[in-house]
Design a protein that fits this description.
By secondary structure, this protein is of the alpha+beta class. Strands 1, 2, 3, 4, 5, 6, 7, 8, 9 and 10 form a ten-stranded antiparallel β-sheet that branches. Strand 7 and strand 8 form a beta hairpin. It binds zinc ion. Zinc ion binds next to loops.
Length: 265
């Protein structure tokens, strides 16, 4: 992949990344008593099955807004020198300061690149809009939604993932077709349902007096508008990614990294 290809890819993924976090932000604002427990680690693996992960980082300066790939967070921006971060300036502005976020895109021969992100709530957990609302606001038309039930094997419950097929027509008249797939992970809990997540948050708070940190995992990539092949891609990718994210149940596993290692001074 040459430099200009990387630039184009990063620019497109940037748009998707903004959406990912917009969705999270809208579902995750309401202050409650909290615990520090999360259901996953805030890190994306280097490899997922046959896919290779590449860091995708942003300049925090709104006017610069450079997007870079394959450099670690904290690297000085090649344009303005500010330390690059997973969060872009819009996310930084929208999200509570202790929100964790990581993102990578994944490449594999013969497949469209998959953008993956994890957002992990900080102490400010809250609000009640569905991600779908934010997508529509950002100019995407949701043309189909599918609840994908993905077998995980090993006696585990299947993983439910919500898949939105989306179209957006640009100023040049070209229509971009992508999918956006997501699920939520809490301590010992997983769901693709925003409503289920809200019910669990409420019952945990009322009946058990706890509010764990919830994570929002999103995958996105271009899709062929004439085919459902992306559903198989999502199933394969999510099934391989899933065990790499979970916090080991045994207490010997050590502390969960809860915040992005952000090199901002
Ligand atoms: Zn910069």
């Amino acid at each position: 992949m040459d430099k200009s290809q990387k630039h184009l890819l990063a620019a497109r993924l940037f748009v998707v990344a903004v959406l990912a976090v917009a969705g999270w932000f809208m579902v995750n604002r309401t202050g409650v008593a909290d615990s520090d427990e999360a259901g996953i680690v805030l890190a994306l693996p280097e490899r997922v099955a046959g896919w290779t992960g590449h860091d995708l980082v942003n300049c925090p300066d709104e006017l610069c807004a450079r997007v870079c790939v394959d450099v670690p967070p904290g690297t000085p921006c090649p344009a303005c020198g500010k330390p690059l971060q997973y969060m872009n300036h819009a996310e930084k502005r929208m999200l509570p300061a202790d929100t964790g976020l990581v993102r990578k895109y994944y490449l594999r021969d013969g497949a469209a690149p998959v953008h993956a992100s994890i957002v992990l709530s900080g102490n400010d957990r809250s609000s009640i809009h569905r991600p779908q609302v934010c997508m529509t606001a950002a100019g995407y038309e949701i043309v189909n939604d599918t609840l994908l039930r993905i077998p995980l094997g090993g006696g585990r419950e299947p993983l439910d993932v919500m898949v939105l097929d989306m179209n957006r027509t640009g100023a040049d008249g070209r229509t971009e077709t992508i999918y956006y797939a997501y699920w939520f992970v809490g301590k010992g809990r997983e769901t693709a349902s925003h409503v289920q997540r809200m019910v669990w948050m409420a019952t945990d708070r009322v009946l058990r007096g706890v509010s764990h940190r919830w994570a929002y995992i999103a995958l996105s990539a271009p899709r062929d508008p004439g085919s459902d092949a992306h559903l198989q891609q999502i199933a394969n990718f999510a099934a391989a990614l899933h065990p790499l994210l979970l916090v080991p149940e045994d207490a010997e596993a050590g502390p969960t990294p809860l915040t992005e290692k952000d090199e901002t001074p």
